[in-house]
Predict the structure.
Amino acid sequence: MPGNADLAGPVVDWFARHARDLPWRRPGFPAWGTLVSEFMLQQTPVVRVIPRLDEWLTRWPTPDALAAEPAGEAVRAWQSLGYPRRALNLHACAVAITERHDGAVPNDVDALLALPGVGDYTARAVAVFAFGARHPVVDTNIRRVIARAVDGLPEAPAPNAKRDLPAMDALLPEDDDDAARFNAGMMELGAIVCTARSPKCDLCPLADRCAWRAAGYPATDVPRRAPQKKYEGSDRQARGAILKALRATPHPLAAAQLAAAVSDPAQYSRAIAGLLADGLIVTPADDTFALP
């Protein structure tokens, strides 16, 4: 495996020149904003997150501001970001921060992991990017860069924290600030240069030391994952249509009104059952539904 200086220096220098201007990278951005952005960025493109993040932090600039409102308001404000259970988890997270940490986002990985909806990646990302702690952060983009530059593989194998975290930790600079910049730089490199389908090797700061490039770009023998099922006509779309109807009104809606949002009665029944099970809707009265 290349030494730390073989990757860290070029990546940190490249990131200083080419990093995108994103809200959560600006000086003074609050830890709460970093946590909210990490929730929103899960499975959602940056371009869709930025306007929603701004709206969210304008309305709820602190965890206690969000915790003071019903969870349904978080679901309403989530709008079209997708996977709305993240909104419920974020609201529960705000409540926990308010009750356990006097409204201040904790800076310790273990304390962050104890918050609702916070997994290993999010905990480490907040500790590193909001507080400058020295931890390895590994997302899909970083895994891809390490697989190619270090291991000579065209694609990263399946995620495995016992392998991925030590691999990134071995590359981290000793200085806390440089380590944070290296984490962010590797993530950025995978997002805009060392992309999954069309890597821009001529723009990559690691081109002269990339094991995959040196090996002549060998093809993968890892089977590609099956493509995600189409959204159009899916149960996910039906759930989204029901939530959209409920977001549009502050009042509960009768079942008959909601049924008009989904043309297939069987799909409507499945969607309602799933939303109830996930806690995304409630029944304040018989045959009546509302956001929680």
The chain has 15 helices and three strands.
